[in-house]
Design brief:
The complex is a heterodimer of chains A (344) and B (817). With 344 residues, chain A is an alpha+beta fold. Chain A is built from twelve helices and ten strands. Chain A has helices at 2-18, 22-33, 38-45, 51-90, 109-123, 137-140, 178-186, 227-242, 295-300, 319-325, 332-335, 338-341; strands spanning 127-128, 134-136, 159-161, 170-172, 191-200, 212-222, 248-252, 258-267, 284-293, 309-316. Chain B is built from 21 helices and 41 strands. Chain B has six domains: 2-39 and 158-185, Phenylalanyl-tRNA Synthetase, Chain B, domain 1, CATH 3.30.56; 45-155, Nucleic acid-binding proteins (OB fold (Dihydrolipoamide Acetyltransferase, E2P)); 198-399, Phenylalanyl-trna Synthetase, Chain B, domain 3 (Phenylalanyl-tRNA Synthetase, Chain B, domain 3), CATH 3.50.40.10; 408-478, 2-Layer Sandwich (Phenylalanyl-tRNA Synthetase, Chain B, domain 1); 497-594 and 608-714, BirA Bifunctional Protein, domain 2 (2-Layer Sandwich), CATH 3.30.930; 730-815, Alpha-Beta Plaits (2-Layer Sandwich), CATH 3.30.70. In chain B, a hairpin with a 2-residue loop joins strand 35 (666-676) and strand 36. The complex binds zinc ion (ZN).
Chain lengths: 344, 817
């Protein structure tokens, strides 16, 4: 019987190694471990044997059964794995094939820049407001200390709008500064706002000048506001936009509605201050005009200039992306060529 | 303002380099825009004298010139027509560095044989020296140019070109800039000393001056010089004018220009003997009076303009330009010199009307002090006597109807720190102000400074003006850097109209960009033609607002919509793009406001302003996706555009409806109005073929347009939560056959009105053999759902049957079997 068991084992395991499918494996199981298999028959017949022989043969038969069962489960695992592997292989992709195309949209670089400016100043407590582009002469000029025939009107060549009433007093605003007046007419300090918007000039357009352009105006009015605060606010803005390393310069400049007046320039990005065509060989690029709100302007809107002070600034928007991205012609922004716009 | 450092150096010592000085001036408000070096590159170029000229033996147009450098002559071949014996000329020796007249390159002069004659150097043109573009003639130097001296020593100079802001007309002069330099560097100012011999005969007995328009001429001063000999000016004078870019004319004109540059006061010289009646009348021009100005143009004047006249006629437009009738010429023997102050507004208006500007008018327009004229007048008289001889009549005419008193400006000492943030001690304030010519007195125990402003600084009127003076001379770089420490203002409510507007704008932008649209920005100023293209009839219903003084016809009108700009952009890009194009713009459009009948005529009444409405316009056309191996190229269609409308408004929970539009820009029957609660908030549709043709569009193009002003009142941030259904829904599909005329909207509205219906989806539209001609079939999936229980088939059957009955009654719909 022991020999018979040994033979069974060799026979079964040798057959198992030939099995190559789950179906074949099931047939093998029925044949060698099924109710009618020789091994099970032997196990059933053990009871009829004398005790001594039963113990030896029983141990032997159980050992064979365990070996066949573990062989079975190992084979089953192998076959399952092989079964999974083959379709994975056949369903492989060329992952380098191009993806399904989705149309790609984008914001205009000027919109992106205005959003950035508003965000930076927003974090410093400046709220964004807007105002009319067709403006009254009063707000664009007189209220800002620029009466008719003031020499400073030369700085703001104006496009007038026909209103049909003879003498034209409506115009396309030459700067966003009228909103200083409109805002201060209705709000009292503390005031902290920025005003993005279009401005218009009667000026020829060339690679660095647009007659229709965007500006962002800033205004802060309260007690104890100084030029040092103006400097701190604008330096922080430049730092955020251009990085820690970029040098900034303040100089005296003239705008009729601020006193003292200032201009801020940053070190030329193209030549790092050495002087080039872009910066007119000065090493500096003018970013904005600024200053302390003129006492006459404050008094005109009913804010006491002896108690309150404030600063204002106005910057051209197009200049910023031109500097950052090296755009050498301002007109590209408004040609709306998608080959240009999609780069931002 | 161009200023020669050599000239500047006569009034103030300059120890800084040109760039250092330029930088200091820039920080202080006089921006350096360019530095020109004259003569730095001239090597081996010296002053020579032409001692002999003979014709070239082999060439008619060339001459052989002998040029003496003080120690012997050189023979050179010269082609310039203006060479004469006795001239002083710039002479380049062999090896001299010059600019090649034809190529513009810097070259080293080599010995040359020209038509058989050896040329031992070269007589130079202005172009060869890099002074100007003149290459026709040689540069002729003044007769007192030192023969043999290096040209760089004689002519070389550094010219600073400074941008002068409109508030500083005093700096349109060399002395004005010298004053700034003195204050900035601490060096003392040395103004010229002015004085001359006056003759016995008093000027009053020789000429009478009257001012009949004192409002336009606050002051009129004049001197008279008899027995002058007008000729060309001496070299130093010509050089000075050249350094500023002014051409020398004759000694008298040159002196007036020189003194104008020196002091900033324009002067005018009249030929005294050509003054009829020996009188000068300063008066308003008569209506329709004419004058022929020095440039030979006859000009029509009006009574707002001021003229200088003699007994008979106008001899100059005051402060702007003289006439030929009184012009100083070589024949002039007596000169009446005018130094006057004219009203800046009158000058400005006159320049605008006459379309005429001069160096003089530019200065008057900026507003000069009426206290300025006498000093420059005496200076010019002194110089004229030096360069043209003669004798000055005794005294000065000084008619001064506009004499004004100067008030002092009080500067509270604290004001400097309060405005600038910079702590400056009083001694430093006083030092700076005094260095600029302000007289200062400490008052109120040193807490305030009383400042009397010098006449040339009419721009200084209040304390902040003085704060700027102090800080700009100390240097803006010394202002400290601080953060705003004042209280934060109250912030905008999220539900405020302004906040809703910016949120709506942002969400529209984000949604469109997400859908593959590129944002564009087009000019709000357009041509009438472009707006007219939007209508197949090429007509506009309402006239757009017009710019009174447009730059170009392309930018003459304010846009009334965004369509034209968007379509033009699309057309432009279709030339380059093979894939579909999707673009959009959000921007303002302008429409005249109906004025209120009792419009208040105060100057700042907003009723006078047009409406500025914000709109969104998107356009799309071409293949739905780029060429790809995934699928064929289907074209974008109406339903792409409509899907965009539905998508971008989705986030705001706005239900839009659609109905056929009669918009002229759209293809009839292929455009829809976008409705919210029956209010039209925009349109969507295919572009009319004629419009497409007018804009030169190559593919079929669809647009969608939203009026943000109509949309905004429907925006709200308040939302109500609806519970998520806990019971399963029942899905039923029905196919309904209806007449072609029945719109899907009609069907869906009826279905949606039934209870339990929570979702209606059209999933097929069929026309063809399976349905009768003239009919169509809608396949619709309806989801029924209840919040309170699981629906039974009976319940759904019941609702569905009622629905089919009503649909049949209202639309004639039948179930398709
Ligand atoms: Zn540069």
């Amino acid at each position: 019987m022991l020999d018979q068991l040994k033979g069974l084992r060799t026979q079964a395991l040798s057959e198992l190694s030939e099995v190559d499918s789950l179906r074949g494996l099931e047939l093998w199981r029925v044949r060698h471990l099924g109710k009618k298999s020789a091994l099970i028959q032997i196990l059933r017949s053990l009871a009829t044997l004398p005790a001594e022989e039963r113990r030896r043969a029983g141990a032997q038969a159980n050992e064979v059964k365990t070996a066949l069962e573990s062989g079975l489960s190992e084979k089953e695992r192998q076959l399952q794995e092989a079964l999974l592997a083959s379709p994975l292989k056949s369903r492989q992709l060329d992952v380098t094939l191009p993806g399904r195309p989705y149309p790609i949209g984008g914001l205009h670089p000027i919109t992106q820049t205005i959003n950035e400016i508003c965000e930076i100043f927003g974090n410093m407590g400046f709220q964004t407001i807007e105002g009319p582009e067709v403006e009254l002469e009063y707000y664009n000029f007189e209220a800002l200390n620029i009466p008719p025939h003031h020499p400073a009107r030369e700085m703001f060549a104006t496009l007038w709008v026909e209103t049909g009433g003879g003498e034209e007093t409506t115009l396309l605003r030459t700067h966003t500064s009228p909103m200083q007046i409109r805002l201060m007419e209705r709000e009292r300090p503390p005031i902290r706002v920025i005003v993005p918007g279009r401005a218009y000039r009667y000026e020829a357009t060339d690679a660095t000048h647009e007659s229709i352009f965007f500006q962002v105006e800033g205004l802060a009015v309260d007690t104890n506001i100084t030029m040092a605060d103006l400097k701190g606010t604008l330096l922080e803005f430049c730092r955020c936009l251009f990085g820690d390393e970029r040098k900034v310069r303040f100089r005296c400049d003239y705008f009729p509605f601020v006193e003292p007046g200032a201009e801020m320039a940053i070190e030329c990005l193209a030549c790092a201050g050495a002087g080039c065509r872009l910066c007119g060989h000065s090493g500096w690029i003018e970013i904005l005009g600024a200053g302390m709100v003129h006492p006459d302007v404050l008094a005109r809107v009913g804010i006491d200039p002896d108690i309150y002070s404030g600063f204002a600034f106005g910057m051209g928007v197009e200049r910023l992306p031109m500097l950052r991205y090296g755009v050498d012609d301002i007109r590209l922004f408004y040609n709306n060529d998608l080959r240009f716009l999609r780069q931002f | 303002m161009k200023v020669s450092l050599k000239w500047l150096g006569e009034y103030v010592d300059i120890t800084l380099s040109a760039l250092e000085l330029g930088n200091k001036l820039t920080i202080a408000g006089l921006e350096l825009s360019a530095v020109e070096s004259v003569g730095q590159a001239w090597d081996n170029v010296v002053v020579g004298e032409v001692t002999d000229l003979t014709p070239h033996p082999h060439a008619d147009r060339l001459t052989l010139a002998t040029v003496d450098l003080g120690g012997g002559g050189f023979t050179v071949v010269c082609g310039a027509p203006n060479i004469r014996v006795g001239q002083r000329v710039p002479f380049a020796r062999v090896g001299g560095r010059l600019i090649d007249g034809r190529t513009g390159q810097t070259v080293s002069l080599k010995p040359a044989r020209i038509r058989g004659v050896v040329s031992e150097g070269m007589v130079c043109s202005e172009k060869e020296l890099g002074i100007s573009d003149d290459h026709e003639s040689i540069l002729v130097l003044p007769l007192d140019a030192p023969v043999g001296a290096p040209l760089g020593d004689y002519l070389g100079d550094t010219i600073l070109d400074l941008d002068i802001t409109p508030n500083r007309p005093d700096c349109l002069s060399v002395i004005g800039i010298a004053r700034e330099v003195a204050a900035l560097t601490g060096a003392p100012l040395r103004p010229p000393s002015v004085g001359y011999q006056e003759s016995e005969q008093r000027i009053d007995s020789l000429v009478s001056v009257s001012v009949s328009a004192p409002d336009l001429c606050p002051r009129y001063c004049a001197t008279l010089i008899l027995g002058v000999k007008v000729g060309s000016s001496p070299g130093w004078l010509q050089q000075r004018l050249n350094s500023y870019g002014m051409r020398p004319v004759n000694s008298v004109v040159d002196v007036t220009n020189y003194v104008m540059l020196e002091y900033g006061q324009p002067l005018h010289a009249f030929d005294y003997h050509r003054l009829k009646g020996r009188q000068v009348v300063v008066r308003r021009a008569a209506p329709a009076e004419t004058i022929t100005t020095l440039d030979g143009t006859e000009r029509r004047l009006d009574p707002d303009m001021l003229v200088i006249a003699d007994e008979e006629e106008a001899i100059a437009v005051a402060g702007i330009m003289g006439s030929g009738a009184s012009e100083v010429t070589e024949a002039t023997e007596a000169v009446l010199l005018e130094s006057a102050n004219f009203n800046q507004v009158a000058i400005r208006r006159g320049c605008e009307r006459l379309q005429l500007r001069s160096e003089a008018s530019v200065r008057f327009e900026k507003g000069l002090s009426s206290d300025l004229p006498p000093e420059p007048l005496r200076r010019a008289t002194q110089l004229l006597l030096e360069v043209a001889g003669g004798a000055a009549a005794g005294g000065v005419v000084d008619v001064y109807p506009g004499k004004r008193e100067y008030e002092s400006v009080v500067l509270p000492v604290r004001e400097v720190a309060r405005l600038s943030g910079l702590e400056v001690d009083v001694d430093e304030m006083l030092k700076v102000l005094r260095s600029l010519g302000f007289e200062c007195r400490e008052v109120d125990r040193g807490s305030r400074i009383a400042v009397s402003v010098p006449y040339w600084r009419s721009d200084i009127r209040c304390a902040p003006d003085l704060v700027e003076e102090i800080v700009r001379i100390i240097g803006y770089e010394r202002i400290p850097v601080t953060r705003l420490s004042s209280a934060l203002p109250r912030q905008q409510l999220r539900s405020s109209p302004a906040s809703l507007r910016s949120s709506l704008r942002r969400s529209l932008r984000d949604a469109l960009v997400g859908l593959g649209f590129q944002e564009i920005l087009t000019y709000p100023l357009v041509s009438l033609e472009r707006l007219q293209k939007l209508s197949p009839r090429m007509e506009l219903e309402t006239p757009p607002l017009k710019v009174a003084n447009p730059m170009t016809r392309e930018q003459e009108y304010l846009r009334t919509g965004l369509r034209a700009g968007v379509l033009a952009t699309l057309a432009h890009n279709q030339k380059f793009e093979s894939a579909g194009i999707r673009v959009f713009e959000i921007g303002k459009v302008f429409n005249p406001r109906q004025p209120a009948t009792d419009e208040v005529k105060r100057p700042h009444n907003d009723e006078r302003l047009p409406r500025e409405d914000e709109m969104l316009c998107a356009a799309l056309g071409g293949p739905r996706s780029g060429l790809s191996w995934h699928a064929g190229q289907e074209m974008l269609d109406f339903f792409d555009a409509k899907g965009v409308v539905e998508n971008v408004l989705n986030g705001w929970g706005i239900n839009v409806g659609f109905r056929v539009s009669d918009d002229e820009t759209l293809f009839p029957g292929r455009g829809a109005e976008i409705l919210v609660d029956d209010d039209r908030i925009g349109i969507v549709g295919e572009i009319h073929p004629k419009v497409a043709q007018a804009f030169d569009l190559s593919d079929t193009v669809f647009i969608m347009e939203l009026d943000l002003e109509r949309l905004l009142p429907r925006m709200s941030r308040t939302r109500r939560y609806r519970p998520i259904p806990r019971f399963p829904g029942v899905s039923r599909d029905i196919a309904l056959v209806v007449d072609e005329q029945v719109s899907y909207h009609t069907m869906e509205s009826i279905i949606r009105a039934f209870p339990l219906v929570t979702k209606v989806t059209l999933f097929d539209l069929y026309r063809g053999e399976q349905v009768p001609a003239g009919k169509k079939s809608f396949a619709i999936r309806i989801i029924y759902q209840s919040l309170s229980h699981t629906l039974t088939d009976d319940e759904v059957d019941n609702v569905e049957q009622q629905m089919l009955d009503i649909l049949h009654q209202e639309t004639g719909a039948t179930l398709r079997r």
